[in-house]
Amino acid sequence: MQASDDVTLGDNSILDASGNVVMEADLGTGDVGTGVAVSLNGGITGNSLTVTTGDDGDTINLNEAAQVTTINTSVGNDVINFGNGGNTLNQFAELVTVDGGTGTNTLNINN
């Protein structure tokens, strides 16, 4: 999946894939200096999940990880949020790897 701007997977929704799920957000150079918000609030099935964002300050919200997950945020001051409104990580069943790239990045864990 490729997007030039924000990506939202709503509460109670499911992205169902038989293979690997690859998301790329903030593609292109049309809005230099403006990051994206990737909010993955629903369920994702698949062998693995990779989320890559572009060269601006981006925000990633991930409520669960039922598969091996990789987050790559490239350049910029990024914010990565793990957990849900109930402040639990019960839905994180697999390995999650974060590469914040360059910049001053923040990882928030709501548990």
List the keywords.
single chain, 111 residues, mainly beta, 5-stranded parallel sheet, 4-stranded parallel sheet, 11 strands, 0% helix
Structure description:
- With 111 residues, the chain is an all-beta fold.
- It has strands at residues 7-9, 14-16, 21-25, 37-40, 43-45, 48-53, 59-62, 68-72, 79-83, 96-99, 106-110.
- A 5-stranded parallel sheet has the order 1-4-7-9-11, with no helix packed on it.
- The radius of gyration is 13 Å and the shape is globular.
- The chain has no helices and 11 strands.
- It starts with 6 loop residues before the first strand and ends with a strand.
Would you spell out the secondary-structure blueprint of this structure?
Elements: E1 7-9, E2 14-16, E3 21-25, E4 37-40, E5 43-45, E6 48-53, E7 59-62, E8 68-72, E9 79-83, E10 96-99, E11 106-110
Parallel strand pairs: 1-4, 2-5, 3-6, 4-7, 6-8, 7-9, 8-10, 9-11
